[in-house]
Design a protein that fits this description.
about 100 residues; mainly alpha; 2 domains; about 85% helix; about 0% strand; flat
Length: about 100
Amino acid sequence: MNASATGNATHANAHGSGIGAYIAVWAGLLALTAITVAVAGLNLQKVAIVVCLAIAAVKSTLVLFYFMHLRYEQRRIIQLIIPIALGALAIFIGLTYSDVLTR
């Protein structure tokens, strides 16, 4: 076994996730995408937007925690990242609405 394969196996064991966890998260993301498409196809009016945004929030959380490895970071780093991300999102939404209102 070469050094990189050994390092990857040690890394997966240290964090407690292997390929099975990634496949489960991927399957979950596919299922949530199918649910989003199904909900968008229904005539639910404004409720569809809320449901689709909630599903998108769950999907982004899965991607952040598993594929970007934030699940294994220290709590302090996550507590720092979340307000920064929400602030950036608020700025983007605010600038978008200000542009729409001035048209």
